[in-house]
Amino acid sequence: MTSSVPPAPQGASPVCGRDGGPVPVTLEGGGVTIETVPVPTSVTVGNTPANPVPMSDAGGSLTVDDGGGSLTVDGPVTDDQMRASPLAVTGPLTNSQLRETPLPVLGPLTNNQLRETPLPVSGPLTNNQLRETPLPVSFPQRIPAVTSVPSSVSPTLLLAQNPSRKGLLLNNKSTSKLLVAFSSLINDTNSFILEPGSLLMFDQQLIFSNAIYGAWTSANGTLTIVEFT
User: Which of 51, 130, 154, 216 is most buried when burial is the number of CB atoms within 10 A of its CB?
Assistant: First the structure.
């Protein structure tokens, strides 16, 4: 019985076993090197997951061409493997894409780290979004002290200097205008006017510790002062 070997392509030599059959190869710790092997467009490897096909680049590199298709990677991939070669992201990302797989952040972050790349917020925010995680706001307790100063056309000390002052309320209970200043030299240039019956309040945001002086255009009535400390 004879067997014929099909003609080899130009530039290639056919390799056959006995009677044109396959060449048996046994590896016993050695290796076989094949310089060039024509490969058909479709190759099926019948190995199983329990008996995978070993591949080694021997310190070089392996190039896999998927022919425009896709490659599937089985098994978990570590964070270091995914970030070995960072991919640049171009184009706008939606809020859903940014939040699709949130990354946990461990360890304390400084204020500068949190604000290093601020994200602009556009569009209306609902009341619930603004108040989603409310921050508690507390104010120190204030103690009021009430005094009354009779009106006078001469410069009068209305309230002494007090560094502990946290708030101030002035009520001109007079039918005359009251000129208020921060020095005993009172004139139209360095004073402000409390009209008859008017009420003026200085909150902690605008408070001052200076002494306060005043003079009425005519002497009648009083000034009620409430100082908060």
Answer: 216
Q: What is the DSSP string of 32-82?
A: ---S-----S-------TTSPPP---TTS------TTS-----S---HHHH
CA distance 94 to 91: 10
* Total domains present in the chain: 1
Q: Does residue 68 fall inside a structural domain?
A: no
203 lies in some domain: yes
pTM of the model: 0.42
Per-residue pLDDT at 1 = 47
Averaged pLDDT in 10-residue chunks for the chain of 229 residues: 53 57 59 53 62 65 64 67 66 70 69 66 74 69 94 96 94 97 93 95 85 96 96
Element housing 171 (H / E): strand 167-173
Give the integer Cα–Cα distance in Å for 200 and 150.
17
The answer to whether 158 and 215 are in contact (CB under 8 A) is no
Angstrom distance (rounded) from CA 164 to CA 228: 9
Residue 163's CATH number: 2.60.120.770
